[in-house]
Amino acid sequence: MGMHQYLNSLSDLEMISRAPGYFKFEKHTVAAHSFKVAQAAQMLGDIEEHAGNEVNWRDLYEKSLNHDYTERFIGDIKTPVKYATNELRTMLADVEDSLTENFVNNEIPAEFQAAYRRRLSEGKDDTLEGRILSVADKIDLMYESYGEIQKGNPEPVYLEIYRESLRTMLEFKQMASVQYFLHEILPELIADNADNNNQLDSITKHILDQIQD
What Pfam family is a match, any one (predicted)? Predict the structure, then answer.
């Protein structure tokens, strides 16, 4: 037993498509998503640190890089399906946990198993790093949908993904990094979209109005 299977499995993430079942102009994979989430988390961490908050960078990088590795076992299930009922979400989480534990026990050398159990466990928790991961994940999801909308994708699901991503970010609006995103980055996105999708502009402005209330 060695690390070969783990390293070999990383290529599997390049074969798993995001938003399965929907037409898309640009293919997004779990591997690419993981990298982009790590980059977004790094930016958010910088903002939090600049605001005077202490960031555990090791935890943040581990959480963001590994947060979707377990999709190697069950694939990227559509969000509406995954969260259809609490029972289904719990069942899927149990399957993920079981397959992950089996992978760690059988493919990871004993001296590294504790580290990989930590890295492959659920990273979205109440710590600052867990909350940053939650926001970074939604930022990438939002930009994936934004790109499809900008290209004229007729699938209505992308407008809904964009809307729900912003709504979820509002749940973390007390964070300095989220305030920065909403007040500094989001207006740039609106300006960049000025001559394209009016519905997207309306959704974004509605979210900003909620922030100001």
Answer: YfbR-like
Tell me which residue range forms the domain holding 77: 3-210
Model confidence over 96-155: pLDDT tens digits? 888 889 889 988 999 999 999 999 988 999 999 999 999 999 999 999 988 888 888 888
Instruction: Give CA–CA dist 127/134, Å, rounded.
Output: 11
**Closest among 49, 65, 50 to 136, alpha carbons compared:** 65
Least confident of 87-91, 109-113, 170-174, 182-186: 87-91
In CATH, what number is assigned to the domain containing residue 13? 1.10.3210.10
SS3 string of the chain?
A: CCCHHHHHHHHHHCCCECCCCCCCCCCCEHHHHHHHHHHHHHHHHHHHHHCCCCCCHHHHHHHHHHCCCCHHHHCCCCHHHHCCCHHHHHHHHHHHHHHHHHHHHHHCCHHHHHHHHHHHCCCCCCCHHHHHHHHHHHHHHHHHHHHHHHCCCCCCHHHHHHHHHHHHHHCCCCCHHHHHHHHHHHHHHHHHCCCCCHHHHHHHHHHHHHHHC
Do the beta carbons of residue 73 and residue 103 sit within 8 Å?
yes
Number of structural domains (the chain) is 1
